[in-house]
Amino acid sequence: MLVNDFKCFPIMAETGYPVCFDATHSIQLPTSMGNISGGQREYIPHLVRGAAAVGINALFMEVHNDPPNAKSDANTVLDIQYLERILSQAKYMHEQRLELLEKWGEDNVHRN
């Protein structure tokens, strides 16, 4: 199982480069099915919303109209029928984050 550590987003943002979250590879279970990777695509929406809320500049997702028959990453690609809904949720979370920052600013808790 891969682990998503969302504190990496603000750390990467400090470089000044755009931060992209790879939602579909994040739910991959490497070689869990022998010689191919499994996946838990049911968690894609949760991770996308979380990443958008923390702050990302771009979102990457592999999408297919027939995931079981995808030639690559069949266990992790997102069914295209869910794409618009997930992107709409990500956009909403992004907008809410911007409103929150406008109202309260960044929560810059200083490191020791």
Query: What kind of assembly state do the chains in view correspond to?
Result: single chain
Counting DSSP H or I runs of 4 or more residues, the number of helices is 3
**Helical proportion, percent range:** 25-40%
Shape: globular
Strand content: 5-15%
**CATH fold node name:** TIM Barrel
List low-confidence stretches: none
Mean pLDDT: 91
Structural class: alpha/beta
What would CATH call the architecture?
Alpha-Beta Barrel
Physical arrangement of strands within the biggest beta sheet: 1-4
CATH class: Alpha Beta
The largest sheet, given as strand count, sense and whether it forms a barrel, is:
2 strands, parallel
Count up the domains: 1
Radius of gyration: 16 Å
What is the string of helix and strand elements?
HEEEHEEEH
Structural commentary:
The chain has 112 residues and is of the alpha/beta class. The protein has a single domain (8-104), classed as TIM Barrel (Alpha-Beta Barrel), CATH 3.20.20.70. The chain has three helices and six strands. The strands form three sheets. The protein has a two-stranded parallel ribbon with strand order 1-4. A two-stranded antiparallel ribbon has the order 2-3. A two-stranded parallel ribbon has the order 5-6. It is globular, with a radius of gyration of 16 Å. The termini are far apart. The model has no long low-confidence stretch (mean pLDDT 91).
Structure summarized in a few sentences:
With 112 residues, this protein is of the alpha/beta class.
